[in-house]
Amino acid sequence: MALYFMIPLFASIFFIFLFNSLLNLFKSKKSRDLPLPPGTLGWPYIGETFQLYSQNPNVFFASKQKRYGSIFKTHILGCPCVMISSPEAAKFVLVTKSHLFKPTFPASKERMLGKQAIFFSQGQYHAKLRKLVLRAFVPEAIKSFVSNIESIAKDSLQSLEGRLITTFQEMKTYTFNVALLSIFGEDEVKYREDLKRCYYILEKGYNSMPINIPGTLFNKSMKARKELAQILAKIISTRRETKQEYNDLLGSFMGDKEGLTDEQIADNIIGVIFAARDTTASVLTWIIKYLGENPNVLQAVTVSLLLLLWD
Ligand code: HEM
């Protein structure tokens, strides 16, 4: 089996941070004198969105990176923004100066994920969602899924035999299947194909221009999102009828005391798939790459896992 280790550059651009404060920074006269990273902002409002979408986004980012380095400014999807792609810059934003930054998303992404998703919320509602998500992923809760996750991993490996693959794509399929299992438990088998079909159309529009007219990517994605929400509503109502207790994420969201609406549940399920999938697939891809390149480390990891199994 040959493995292709290259993650598309678009995915490896570590984080895109679009900040309201940055917007103000761009606007205020005083701040115009402040140093900003190199780069260009393009046309008013439209910025460089057309350049981004008139070609493969990887090419857009690669040419910017080549020209301006790992930190550069641009203007896409209606927001002035700074793109970062180096570990040092990510550490600066996420660790050393995290108090100066606030995560926000382009308006199109907010509509795709759903405005009541955890990423767009604050205060008590945010704290409640965080608690509900966390309690579905503590070791005690995921214990019962381990053997099913192992089956998914084995099936995935088997399906790779003799094929030339793009590792990141395969890892995305794997993480999607694990995400569905963690969210819907055993119910996922019944709905897997429909959920997959809708989610895959939805995610194609995540970074699309928010033009909602028939035929646009955004329009197709919004339709898929609507269908996804209908499937979720069906699963929720079936569960309500059976009155059974579930220890998966949907079970956590539906916990009686928490009182989330169907819409809030749908927004957050789509949100968690979005949060968990590409991130984890990317980490897995890097792990495979480095284990493939370092047989000694692979051997040490294999031995320590075997020892764990024998314990
Ligand atoms: C290696 C994989 C992952 C990486 C690198 C990653 C990275 C991140 C980052 C940078 C944030 C923003 C943090 C902040 O706002 O301060 C975040 C938020 C979040 N992630 Fe992950 N994540 C990963 C895996 C997952 C998984 C598997 C889940 C599924 C449960 C998940 C669920 C979430 C949620 C729900 C949030 C929003 C948290 C909040 O607003 O309070 N992530 N993640």
TrEMBL record:
SUPFAM superfamilies: Cytochrome P450 (SSF48264). GO terms for molecular function: (+)-abscisic acid 8'-hydroxylase activity; heme binding; iron ion binding. The chain crosses the membrane at residues 6-26. Keywords: Iron, Membrane, Metal-binding, Transmembrane, Transmembrane helix. GO terms for biological process: abscisic acid metabolic process; sterol metabolic process. Pfam families: p450. Belongs to the cytochrome P450 family. This is Abscisic acid 8'-hydroxylase 1-like.
